[in-house]
Amino acid sequence: MSQSNDYASVMARKGEIMKRSVGIDYSLFESGSIAFDYEKMMRETGYTLEEMQKIQESVHVGNTPIIELRNITALARKCAGSGLGARIFIKDEACNPSGSFKARRAAISVYHAKKLGFKGVLTATSGNYGAAVASQAAMAGLKCIVVQECYDSRGLGQPEIIEKARKCEALGAEVVQLSVGPELFYKFLLLLEETGYFNASLYTPFGIAGVETLGYEIAMQFREKYGRDPDAVVCTNAGGGNVTGTARGLQKAGAQSKVIGASVNLAGLHMASDQQFNKKSFTTGHTGFGMPFAVWPDRSDVPRSAARPLRYMDRYVTVSQGDVFYMTEALASLEGLEKGPAGNTSLAAAFALAQEMPQEQMLVVQETEYTGAGKHIQPQLTFARENGIIVYFGRPEDETPGKNIVLPAEPHLIKATDVDLTHMRTSLIKTAVSQHQGELTPADIRFLAEETKSSTAFVKKVLAQA
Amino acid sequence: MVEKGKWVLIRRTVLEPGERAPQAPEDTREVPLRMWIKGTLQKRAAIGEEVTVLTRTGRIETGTLLEENPYYKHDFGKCVPELMAISDQVREMVFGGEGE
């Protein structure tokens, strides 16, 4: 009997498709109310840190070098007040097989898919994760399909995404490219149903826990080389997995380093708008994902996301597109390192944040990504100009996403702008409550306090205002 | 004409404007959801014809034939002189004009 494949019918089958394709019965962790047992889910469905290190080592993932950016630090100190300008380090995650830290996430997902006997893996991503899954699937001998949001309705594609498609194809994957819209998830579900492949979602416990080794390595490498943990770790934030995994890894190492999320400010641009799709120069690491996924993690492609960044962020800052382009050029010109722009979001933030910290402190940018045709500041700025974006030197605060890209006239103009975390925490609590019917239990209150890295008193205060 | 067995790019409309998700922004709901996919052409056809392909994972997909041996057209772009200006600026600040 053929079933109906219209949008509403397919979305109605979401639950059963998911259950089959990720092999996790999420109901085991549910309380029936707002609360669910996050740690139990991470513990019982994932792998231990030691197991993950072994899995990743066997597929050449991890143990990437940490590089001290002495010249970037020198530049920051030229811009900073007396005695300020922490040492800036970068973890060269581009050394992973697929060219980004996403290999860590993919390694665990693909290992798990193979263990469960799936013949292939499917993932919905326009980012580096696609190449990571393709690379790991190639090693494991599994088939791989990557579903991308790539073009506007005219068929004009973001150069960065087209490059990622090329890389996936080079690694043997099938790439399904779609025009803009939330129905990417609809097509993704149809493909899961058709193929019976494993859903290598970015948001399963495997997808997130795979990043824990990154945070753990940072602590271990710093202790070995510098005798102590770094003072702060800056993570580019989009869907929240990078922040969550890194912070959990740091915690498992017993490190007290501050965890700071950083996103490119794309305020005002609608991520699902056909007309605005090609008006942005960043396809990930931006507030268009960073904000909504932080305040409502379960909007992802699994019932309960393992990426819950508000549990872990001590601070969340934004930088402008122009700031990131400037720092990407500075990284090449001062350090001789040509790396992809999106991963440098946290570098731009770190450049500003280091100027608030004393010189003896240490600040780590926890990723780099590969660069290539399309995925490089020059084609991205060329593309921006061709799409009517005005590029000029000026003050970063004058940047309006979708209208212009303001390259900082001087490096001291690069600022990390704090996002109001209290506001985001409030928003998460209100969203959770609005999705729920009935009275909140004491367990719900405790859960919301954990979700927001706050207190039960804070949660009660927000609820009283609602 | 493109011969059977050639590697091709096709395009298909997945959802017409009236079938799109209710939560999509208005400008997105006014246009179809389109899909581009590559595969091996199953029957000799001309560009623009409706065809069937076999994808890398062995699935069958149908759509309009667009291109044989599809070209990756993304590149390193035009020179952006502002990037060289940034380069000069940061080198001057850190190394004090060495190399001039």
- Which strand-content bin applies to the residues of chain B? 25-35%
Largest sheet of chain A: 7 strands, mixed
Main sheet attributes: strand count, strand direction, barrel closure of chain B: 4 strands, antiparallel, barrel
How many strand segments of chain B?
A: 4
Give an overview of the whole structure.
The complex is a heterodimer of chains A (466) and B (100). By secondary structure, chain A is an alpha/beta fold. Chain A has a single domain (49-420), classed as 3-Layer(aba) Sandwich (Rossmann fold), CATH 3.40.50.1100. Chain A contains 19 helices and 13 strands. In chain A, the strands form 3 sheets. In chain A, strands 1-2-10-7-8-9-13 form a 7-stranded mixed β-sheet, with helices on both faces. In chain A, helix 11 (212-226) packs across helix 12 and helix 14 (321-335) crosses helix 15. Chain A is globular. The radius of gyration of chain B is 23 Å and the shape is flat. A 4-stranded antiparallel barrel of chain B has the order 1-2-3-4. Chain B has a domain at 7-74. Chain B is an alpha+beta fold and 100 residues long. Chain B has 2 helices and 4 strands. The model of chain B has no long low-confidence stretch (mean pLDDT 95). Chains A and B meet through helix 5, strand 4, helix 8, strand 5 and helix 9 of A and strand 1, strand 2 and helix 2 of B. Strand 5 (174-179) of chain A pairs antiparallel with strand 2 of chain B.
What's the layout of helices and strands?
The complex is a heterodimer of chains A (466) and B (100).
Chain A: H1 7-12, H2 14-22, H3 38-45, H4 49-58, E1 66-68, H5 70-79, E2 87-91, H6 102-115, E3 120-124, H7 128-140, E4 143-151, H8 159-170, E5 174-179, H9 184-195, E6 198-199, H10 205-209, H11 212-226, E7 232-236, H12 241-252, E8 258-264, H13 287-295, E9 315-319, H14 321-335, H15 345-354, E10 362-365, H16 377-386, E11 390-394, E12 404-408, E13 417-418, H17 421-434, H18 442-451, H19 456-465
Helix pairs in contact in A: 6-7, 7-8, 11-12, 14-15, 18-19
Chain B: E1 7-15, H1 26-29, E2 33-41, E3 50-54, E4 60-68, H2 81-95
Antiparallel strand pairs in B: 1-2, 1-4, 2-3, 3-4
